[in-house]
Amino acid sequence: MRTELRIARVVVAVVGLVLLVNGSVRGTDDLWPFGPMSQYSMVVADDESIVFTRISAVTDAGPTVDVPLNIEGAGVARAEIEARAGEIVKDPSLLQQVADGWARKHPDKPKYVTLLLIQDTTTLVGGRVSGPPVPRILTTWKVRR
Fold it and tell me: HEC profile for 95-132?
């Protein structure tokens, strides 16, 4: 009985590995969970552009810094900012939450004075970057104290 159980476990493990390798080689999400799930990734054509959304902040210490868009940084993830970029452009006061989150999580660090919602566009030519990213300021917000 023990040998039969071991054989069954090995067979199940081998079948699982074969399915996973097959799905990975074929590279389609249709085979999930035995293949890649690429809902967060994308393929960019060789002659397209990549758009990256970020927030920069002018601090009360003077320098402009990139806001760390994660839970440990400002308490908000980049995906949330990207998903709500249109709303933020219409109502820049939504950026106040980013400044408040930073101040709450980092009371010993310089405070944000002005926030800028920026989209950087990197252009590809023949699959290679054709120059530095081109920033475009979508909106700004003067932080309330």
Answer: HHHHHHHHHHHCCCCCCEEEEEEEEEEEEEECCEECCC
CA dist 95 and 79 (Å) reads 14
DSSP 54-99: EEEEEETTS-EEE---STTTTSS-HHHHHHTHHHHHH-GGGGHHHH
In angstroms, the CA 104 to CA 126 distance is: 45
Q: Which two tokens stand for residue 62?
A: 């003077």
Token digits of residue 12: 């199940």
How many CA atoms are closer than 13 Å to the CA of 61, on its beta-carbon side?
8
The predicted model gives 128-140 an average pLDDT of 94
Rounded CA-CA distance 36/44 in Å is: 17
In the 8-state DSSP scheme, what is residue 32? T
Kindly report the pTM of this predicted structure. 0.69
Q: For residue 101, give the amino acid letter.
A: G
pLDDT at position 38 is 54
